[in-house]
Amino acid sequence: MRRDRDLDEVLPLRSLAAAFAFLALPAWSGHQSDPLASRSLGRADAPVVVYEMSDFQCPYCRQFALTVFPALEREFVATGKVRFVYVNFPLPAIHRHAIAAAAVAMCAARQNKFWPLHDLLFQRQERWAGAEQPAPYLLALADSAGADTAQLAQCVTSRATEPEIRADAARAARAGAHSTPTFYIEGGLLEGAAPVEAFRQVLDSIYRSKTARVR
Known about the structure:
By secondary structure, this protein is α+β, with helices and mostly antiparallel strands. It has helices spanning 59-77, 98-109, 114-123, 125-129, 135-144, 149-157, 162-175, 196-213, and strands at residues 14-15, 40-41, 48-54, 82-88, 182-185, 188-191.
């Protein structure tokens, strides 16, 4: 398995026919009409959709979340151009607490608190990633994110979200992801913690192409 990408190691967007299998997203067992809504940002009908295949313990995912994503959110998500979807791709062979963090995040998603916890998990990654038993700290972060901690603890203890996490990881692998972060963007993959300029170039180009077709 390839290591996480360095910040300056960015592979070009590449087309993969197999990646279209990524779009086969089964509905959750609940009654939510959009199974990705709780871990998505942006308009559901945005012209461009970006799927981030990520690991909460990955340092390069943290770098993206803290330094690149805020600009993308302002420039593309808030303006209605892009819908951004988080997909769990934990790599437990190198990040031993990645699945635990994903489980807490997905339980928080059931309370519509995914994104506040997403931010806290990356902001405080150094605090919980090195802990022998990270569960108490992860639950404390969920509390800070505004989640009902009793309900969330029950969700985590019952392992209710593990099938979703496994399905995400399998879907990411089918799409061609081998390392984190990897971004599936309209039929191609952008691998590594690319700088914001690389995302601007790709997203602007795809947005112009897609919106030109409907004019």
